[in-house]
Amino acid sequence: MSIDQFRLLSKYDVAVPRYTSYPTVPSWDFQTIQGDNWKSAVIRSFKQENQELCIYIHLPFCEELCTYCACNKRITKNHAVEIPYLESVLAEWEMYRALLADTPVIREIHLGGGTPTFFSPEHLKQLINGITKHAIVANDHAFSVEVHPNYTNEQHLVALQEVGFNRISLGVQDFDPVVQFIINRPQTFEQTQHVIKTARALGFTGVNIDLIYGLPKQTNDSIKLTMEKVKELMPDRIAFYSYAHVPWKSKGQRRYTDEDVPVAEEKLQMYQTGSAYLHQLGFSHIGMDHFALPTDALMLAYQVGKLHRNFMGYTTTNHKLVIGLGASAISDTWDAFAQNEKGVEAYQDAIASGRLPIINGHNLNETDQLIRKHILDLMCRDTTTLVEEQLPAGTFDAIMERLSGFVEDGLISIEGGKISILPSGRLFIRNICSAIDLHLHSGSRQGNTFSKAI
Q1: Does the global pTM surpass 0.90?
Q2: Contact at 8 Å (CB) between 138 and 117?
Q3: What is the CA radius of gyration of the chain?
């Protein structure tokens, strides 16, 4: 590692948001969305989007705990939970359907978790049929599902394909047995390969693999081993994430110590090694953490400036209305966010009482929406243009002052108000975005909230 690289790591390896939303959840003001405000936001967005929407469904159950995971999940081997939970999800959807004056056109469905294939093939099919039976499925829809190879069989894939699913995302993280053991996610290459081959044979048109660098006990050799296996699998796109070490939030991460987690210099080497492998295989870097082949829809959307990012990650369906169903799911109307009860029982109790299970949210004012667009443009298009007159008084100069260090370090260029992320700045996109985060710099937030950038 060069002296300059070490200096940048020391400077920018700080806790910053991942910007799955703006404002980020710790800055949300729930009072702004209470009462009928959220329902009004949904109705307004539905009309503006010409009855089109995307749906995220959170299926939180897993049979085993992956210790690295900071997602909302429930560990159980009791599959009797399946039907009651799905009945609640469908009841929640009917509450939203009652708000909508016209038949919804579903552009996208994403099943996340948890482990969606914890549910039986029959129950997954019933769920999707229940969602789509009084809706129109767009011809160019994107239905995707996150799968764990150990808990996904051919019957799952057949059932999902029959109800319109065409994309699959596999959690791999690392193929090194030592790393798999400590994160409690043992899965063989053969299992992973079998799921991918089966999905492609059934007609799934897109395959994504999730990989993580910086996991406990992971080394640069682990990355090399994993990338050699990826070469044999050749998915269409890859998410190559930095491990988020947040043991104060995710108790499973207390299975190992801070000493087991690679330091920033080691993580940088892992990222550089993995990135170099992926480029050799023909993948190109998109936005933050993602790589895609030239023929993949994500790359095509990026090239024409239509790439979008929301709580489901990067997406080609640039629609502003996302309805989140299930425990902890987050909905988005572009000018408002709403999050469901996180606990399964609390979520189901709310549904049983006949009310939308909203527990948190935020109504975005004009400045929030403006900053949100700038952050999305940086993450999806590598550039944005700030106009001083559009920003609150005094904030333009403060933002430019915060950005000046990135210019000096060769990570971005600025011409007038136009900010462009340079290739060397891709690893630091979160840091760059944080410079224009007005909530982050308001001085109102306290405590250990975010993971480190590297």
Answers
A1: yes
A2: no
A3: 21
Per DSSP, what are the bridge partners of residue 330? 339
End-to-end CA distance of the chain: 15
Cross-strand pairs, 167: 144, 206
Strands 418-421, 284-286: parallel, antiparallel or unpaired by DSSP?
unpaired
Residue 374 has pLDDT above 60, yes or no: yes
Domains present along the chain, CATH in parentheses: 1-23+366-454 (1.10.10.920), 25-325 (3.80.30.20)
What's the rounded Cα separation, in Å, for the pair 47 and 452?
A: 39
**pLDDT band at 319; cut points 50, 70, 90:** confident
**Residue 338: HSE in the Cβ half-sphere, 13 Å Cα cutoff:** 26
